[in-house]
Model the fold of this input.
Amino acid sequence: MLNNYTLSDSDFNKLREIVYKEAGIKLSDVKKVLVQSRLLKRLRELKIVSFSDYYDYLIANYETEKINFINLITTNKTDFFREKDHFEFMKDVILPDIERKNLSELRIWSAGCSSGEEPYTIAMVIKEYFKNKKSPEILILATDIDTQVLEKAKSGLYSEEHISPVEEKYIKSYFFKEVINGEIYYRIRESLKECVYFRRLNLLQEQYPMKRQFDIIFCRNVIIYFDRDSQRKLFDKFYNYLKDDGYLLIGHSENITNVTDKFILHGRTIYRKAL
Done:
């Protein structure tokens, strides 16, 4: 039983410093209640009776516990076909452009992929476009800092309600139905899974392991959690990892104005490199 359910300002400040250090996310004061509620279950699991004691535990077991801590704090809201006009732009503009280039492979990075809905949506749109055409090899790198959502993404298993934004033609081609404990679920088919590679990556780490550039980078509804300096560093990395004729897509609520001048607007929150 917890003796102290209240997260003090002092402990909140110490914990949010770690969040910023490890994930680049700046938590405002109004996030204190959210942090408190997300950490309570972990405190119960560890039989720790106060947030102050949890902070001490985190520091004492930093390399192992920091992953659990970051997993609990990071936000993982996502959907299939979220911000659908981006995928319409892919079908109408980006993929015809790719087709004209006659590429042998198409390299895409879904940065901040959460539980996999975005990279699987990307894969479905591409597969459908090239269904009766000569298709490049599709290579989608999907990264996130949260190991728990990556495991869910790898499983490719989603509830019936969760796939409601997906058109029937995609469900028929790229999912199969499973019944688990009387509940209906849909699992991604292997033919789609084989296009997507899930890896843990902290976007704010100094060096990335990837060696080659990408044709398209998706980083949507991620940068809003970073401060201006972190955003600038991230866009510098995206610039270097994007091919000269590549595309960068960010979230509808995000804006790169006054952050970087390395990209030119090409559609609604769709950019290309400024050369």
